[in-house]
Write a structure and sequence with these properties.
The chain is 36% helix and 24% strand. The protein is of the alpha/beta class. It has two domains: 3-243, Glutamine Phosphoribosylpyrophosphate, subunit 1, domain 1; 252-590, Glucose-6-phosphate isomerase like protein, domain 1 (Rossmann fold, 3-Layer(aba) Sandwich), CATH 3.40.50. The strands form five sheets. It has an eight-stranded antiparallel sheet with strand order 3-2-4-1-10-9-11-14, with helices on one face. The protein has a six-stranded antiparallel sheet with strand order 5-6-7-8-12-13. It has a five-stranded parallel sheet with strand order 18-17-19-20-21, sandwiched between helices. α4 (128-136) packs across α5 and α15 (474-490) runs parallel beside α17. The longest helix has 36 residues, at 426-461. It is globular and about 75 Å long. It starts with a strand and ends in an 18-residue tail after the last helix. The structure holds 5-amino-5-deoxy-1-O-phosphono-D-mannitol (M6R).
């Protein structure tokens, strides 16, 4: 995790660095810092707490310089504190580094450096890097970085600035994202595109094992082993406004409201009458025959989208699907081989566990399709096939528009697989596709019509420390996502259960007033869900039902939130919206920082 930035050009670097860091604050926000080279000196400003603290510090001190680096931290090694925050500097003060990732062998390297007389001021793994560069420096910064890289084990995106060669930035990546923005006589380095979008839409996306030496005259790309790299410039097609709050109080609320547009982008060019087309997935019926199982691997919200994916693929394409949390999958010798179709799902495309699982699956011979938002990310590049979400940049830590477009991609893929296998009649796929196309507008309606009720509901639910979400079949999958959303931003303990499972234990936790959200859209089990709602009501639970408009059979609710009608299997896309709004307004009601919840970061590039 962590966000890193760099700038070299003719402008004052500080505002550019601080503004870039603000766009990366979703990656970590427990401390931040910048280093600027100016007139023979390296000036370093760092401070614990959010970016606004660094902004206050730099506003006061007004550091000068047209070359600099910056960092916003999510602590791994060493608590959040000013000494542990980046940039870190070598013992002689000449080499300064910002780092995203983890240096796994830092303990051993630190001991070796200490034995040589090097001094350490922090508890971080990163501080070995500038000291190793100092140790390896013999008049050539690039060479010293290469030698240092050879000694490191782990994941890193690094930017190095030195008083010895102050007219350049040296940057390198291995398993942590890094891009270089190309301006006119100025260049930008960042962990992610939003940080540079205001300045340029042309970027190089560095691959693992690549480095760049950046001067005001240009960018030289090479591998860490010293071979030249010739790389295409990637043109970003995002509007800079997409990475701004645009009048909303929080990015999360803005992103909830952007969902209709994100869904429209996600289906654009992919739905055609009764069939689905993907630019980068071309599986023939014969190829599909080969696969006896689908394995979905992902983390967090992406994992919960996979639970919906399981229902959809099993129903429409009749292939058995396993869904696994990537951090478990990778370590348990998964039963995956060339007969397995693996689907790796990730908004960021950089989640370490999902990336490692993808590699594990490919090593075992599986064909991997990635469902991913971030163009050019590691997961997108390393998969055999890629389905982009096209959700646009998602900044809030709590995922919303990425989740809903993941669902859309799963639905489209399920129809694609069902059609390719010859299992879906044209009329059935036509109906599903026509319903898919109506979803963006229906999401708009839900946001407009249910926000008032949800705000009232949030005032009530915000008083409790526990909440439960129940549902059956695909409604249970939605309940899982609902409970995670509430947990991560409102810090309320929340759990989701298949509604029929309550009586096997969790019912003991229901007492007067406890919030219970019942998602009840699946007609085939509506009576059963109603019984479970009654069981909760009988114990005093305050039940909110998320039901289709006109649903008569679910009664006895304390709150009722209606969603418009659609094919039952597609209900997840609609049913999740009230749950997102509920968690948002509960968190606001409790006065928490919605976009930057405690202890979390957006992109989890550590194991
Ligand atoms: O970038 P990814 O989709 O791979 O991220 C996976 C999870 O870290 C992510 O979904 C996380 O659970 C979100 N904070 C949920 O809102």
């Amino acid at each position: 995790m962590c966000g890193i930035v760099g700038y070299i050009g003719e402008q004052e670097a500080t505002p550019i660095l601080v503004e870039g860091l603000k766009k990366l604050e979703y990656r970590g926000y427990d401390s931040a810092g910048v280093a600027l080279y100016n007139d023979g000196n390296m000036d370093i400003f760092k401070i614990v707490g959010k970016l606004e603290n660094l902004e206050g510090l730099t506003d006061k001190e007004k550091p000068k310089g047209t070359i600099g680096i910056g960092h916003t931290r999510w602590a791994t090694h060493g608590k959040p504190s000013t000494p542990n925050s980046h940039p870190h500097t070598s013992t002689n003060g000449k080499f300064t580094v910002v780092h995203n990732g983890i240096i796994e062998n830092y303990m051993q390297l630190k001991e070796e450096l200490k034995a040589k007389g090097y001094e350490f001021k922090s508890e971080t793994d990163t501080e070995v890097v500038p000291n190793l560069i100092q140790d390896n420096y013999d008049g050539d910064l690039e060479e010293a970085v290469r030698k240092t890289i050879e000694m490191l084990k782990g994941a890193y995106a690094l930017v190095v600035l030195s008083t010895e060669e102050p007219e350049k930035l040296v940057t390198v990546r291995e398993d942590s994202p890094l891009i270089i923005g190309l301006g006119e006589g100025e260049y930008f380095v960042a962990s992610d595109i939003p940080a540079i979008l205001k300045h340029t839409d042309e970027v190089y996306i560095l691959d693992d094992g690549e480095m760049a030496v950046i001067t005001r005259n240009g960018v030289e790309l090479s591998t860490v082993t010293g071979n030249n790299v010739d790389k295409d410039v990637f043109k970003v097609d995002w509007d800079p406004g997409m990475a701004e709050k645009g009048g909303f109080d929080h990015f999360m609320l803005k992103e909830i409201h952007e969902q209709p547009e994100a869904l429209r982008r996600s289906i654009a060019g992919r739905l055609n009458g009764d069939s689905v087309h993907f630019d980068n997935v071309n599986l023939t019926a014969k190829e599909l025959e080969k696969y006896n199982k689908v394995y979905i691997i992902a983390c967090g919200t992406a994992y919960y989208s996979g639970v919906v994916g399981k229902y959809a693929i099993e129903k429409l394409a009749r292939i058995p699907v396993e869904v696994d949390v990537a951090s478990e999958f990778r370590y348990r010798e998964p039963l995956v081989d060339e007969k397995t179709l693996v689907i790796a799902v990730s908004q960021s495309g950089e989640t370490a566990d999902t990336l490692a699982s993808l590699r594990e699956a490919r090593d075992r011979g599986a064909h991997v399709i990635a469902i991913c938002n971030t163009v050019g990310s590691s997961i997108a590049r390393e998969a055999d096939d890629i389905i982009y979400l096209n959700a646009g940049p998602e900044i809030a830590v709590a995922s919303t528009k990425a989740y809903i477009t993941m669902l859309m991609c799963f639905y489209m893929l399920s129809i694609y697989l069902g059609k390719t296998k010859g299992l879906l009649e044209d009329d059935d796929s036509k109906k599903l596709i026509s319903d898919l196309k109506r979803l963006p507008e229906q999401v708009e309606d839900i946001i407009e019509n249910s926000t008032g009720t949800i705000k009232d509901l949030a005032k009530e639910y915000a008083k409790y420390e526990d909440a439960f979400y129940i549902g059956r079949l695909i409604d249970y999958a939605v309940a899982l996502e609902g409970q995670l959303k509430l947990k991560e931003i409102s810090y309320i303990h929340a759990e989701a259960y298949p509604a029929g499972e309550l009586k096997h234990g969790p019912l003991a936790l229901i007492e007067e007033g406890i919030p219970v959200v019942a998602v009840a859209t699946q007609r085939s089990v509506i009576d059963k869900t109603l019984s479970n709602v009654k069981e909760v009501k009988a114990r005093g639970g305050a039940v909110t039902g998320v039901v289709f408009e006109g649903e008569e059979d679910i009664e006895d609710l304390d709150y009722r939130i209606e969603i418009p009608g659609t094919s039952e299997i597609l209900s997840a896309i609609l049913a999740v919206v009230p749950l997102q709004l509920l968690s948002y307004y509960v968190a606001v009601q409790r006065g928490y920082d919605v976009d930057q919840p405690r202890n979390l970061a957006k992109s989890v590039t550590v194991e």
